[in-house]
Amino acid sequence: MSENFEKNKIALQFTKQHVESMRNFSQMLLGCGIKHFHYNKVFKDGRYVHFVDDEEYAEFFTNEIDDVPAVFENAYHQNFREFIWPQKKLEGFLLKLQNYKICNGFSLARFYENYYEAWSFSTDSENTDIINTYVNKIDELKCFSVYFNNIFASVVKEAEKTPGQFKNYNFAHQNYWEGANTSALNLPFVVNEQPVYLTFRELGCLQLVSEGLSMKEIAKKLNLSSRTVEFYLNNVKQKLSVTTKSKAISIYNSQKRLKW
């Protein structure tokens, strides 16, 4: 425990040294109503690199890292994934974030075999309309994230020499993806002029069934039982207010979705 404490203390010092640079870099986002930008790089062995634009939040993150939901998958995907948060009642880590005026957020993530990267954008709790900005400017935010990596590449590399360390970090569990903690959801479908959010598994099953795979084939591909796949697809139909898979597929195909 004391060894992790010392590692995290050193990592925090490095993070604080670059708070001003992060703040200056993210100034271009203010015009969109986005007030905070954070970057994380987390490895499977629990090492992490963290850059933020607020010194107090940097300390908070270091003190609370073992309450941060695990977000690593067994399989890796190098495409961006998008998460709007929160969608459910605030609790735990997200509730505490409000003390730092970090709310109504949007995260992009890329997952590799041994680590993931996440770029998070957020604003005040009262600015709920920011969700529309995220949806409309997703391509710009992806470009911003890539631009950040290019500009800060050497700094991130330097930070990896003295990373922080999670004490107990379970990369294998799927709760984050299923929406149990922070509703890790993709961008919404619009049904009857209302946003409808599907979980990672629900969207995955819908995508595969739209590609013509059978229940058995989907189950094998996702390492699930056929009954579980059926459960997810029933959830999809209920959320999309349809009674058949073909109607759910029609909604999926009519609204542009990023491939998983």
Give the gist of this structure.
The chain is α+β, with helices and mostly antiparallel strands. It is 44% helix and 17% strand.
Provide structural commentary.
- With 260 residues, this protein is an alpha+beta fold.
- It has 2 domains: 175 residues, 2-Layer Sandwich (Beta-Lactamase); 67 residues, Winged helix-like DNA-binding domain superfamily/Winged helix DNA-binding domain (Arc Repressor Mutant, subunit A, Orthogonal Bundle).
- It is 44% helix and 17% strand.
- The chain is built from 12 helices and 8 strands.
- The chain has a 6-stranded antiparallel sheet with strand order 3-4-5-1-2-6.
- β7 and β8 form a beta hairpin.
- α1 runs antiparallel to α3.
- The longest helix is centred in the first third of the chain and has 16 residues.
- It is globular, with a radius of gyration of 19 Å.
**How would you name the CATH homologous superfamily of the largest domain?**
Transcription factor LuxR-like, autoinducer-binding domain
- pLDDT averaged over residues: 81
* Strand neighbour order, sheet with most strands: 3-4-5-1-2-6
Sketch the topology as an H/E string, one letter per element. Answer: HHEEHEHEEHHHEHEEHHHH
